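Attaching the record inline, Q. Sequence:
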Amino acid sequence: MRRRDQRPAVAAPPRWRFGMPHAAWLDNGLEVLICPREGQHIASVCLSLDIPLDAEPSHIEGVATITQRCLDEGTVAHPGITFSEALEDIGAVLDGSVGFSASQLFLDVPTAGLAQALKLLAEVVTQPELAPVQVERHRELRLADIDQTLASSARSAQVGFRKACIPRRFRVSRMAGGSATRVAAITADDVRDFHATHYRPEGATVIISGDLTSEVYSWVEAAFGGWEVPGTVNPLHTPITPRARHRWLIDRPGAVQADIRLGGLGIDRTDPRWADLQVANYALGGAFLSRLNRVLREEHGFTYGVHLVNQPMRTGGLLAVQGSFRTEVVAQAVALAAEIVDLSHNPITEEEVAQAVRYYTASAPLRYSTAAGVTQHLAALVAAGLSAEFIDANTYALSQVTAASATAALTGLLRPDQLSLVVVGSAEHLAGPLAEAGWALTQHSL
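Structure, as predicted:
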């Protein structure tokens, strides 16, 4: 008999597995992924369109962004503001994003209004008004957004780092929403032509998560079954290659702090080192007490926070130390960061591996606990050209990571002599100290 003061033994939790979606295809080529989630009465929908930004004509880059932003401004059946009113009547919220590999629309709606919401979603992609006045308005809003980006040190550092790591011939080296010069050239005819050519069902995917009934398939068929676009388009997802190392200083006169990006080209989820990199990334800069934050924030007080950020793309990715630092400590912070990411003398430990794997495996059920979480994660995989099987496969791969494999993955990607560096701050106060610390930078403008 167990004594009252003895605690019961706690068994290890069972291995978590993702609830796989049910897949089907409409005759027009549209893939449908249904993810039943009991108790989730707000359905989450994503329509992912296979439109890589390589599809944009080079002289009007940003047209994909303007096109998507105009979609919900009115349709043939619900012109102007009446479309927004139709969404509000059923409690639906429509949003969207344009990435380098896909254009995606996200819809949240109570399950009671899902059938009608799917019809409205189909309207915006098949029969949008795309009125010239709306194109002009969203073009001006995008130009203002570009100004805001360039006025932000952190966002400027990100734009500069992307340019520093990816050769200019690749579309992914530039802002997804286009530059000011090219956005300013976009016309309503450009938007209508882009929509007519690239918004098509073949290669597109509808993801629906929530407390669903079997009727959902017929609702999708009723909404999207008649979507037909003549001709064919073969989307081109261009694999990227690395750019030679660049070290740039983007001048921000009078700035009292600087934003840094230190790193290089990373890998995508299809790389066999992906799980190893996740673990190494967590140990170095993915947790509050990771090595970078512990040294640069807790021990030295140089920053409010610094991270090693892993941004996968469809092919390749970006891997960089990111943080904002007081101007007078930037040179020392860069030197320390470079020393920390060099694992040749201080490899990842087994305890760090165990902590990272525990975090990823224990938090997985939370990441997929809501209908929105399921849809958003699946949408990211679809844009990357992957299926839901990746989720369980990656969970297993994490359990196989060792200290040696995690160290090798990061060491192979962040070689000390190949690190690119972008610093946005006061050139007057930064150029000299950085050069003295062995980080001579070339002044660069975005």
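The chain is about 40% helix and 15% strand. The two ends are 73 Å apart (CA to CA).

More tomorrow.
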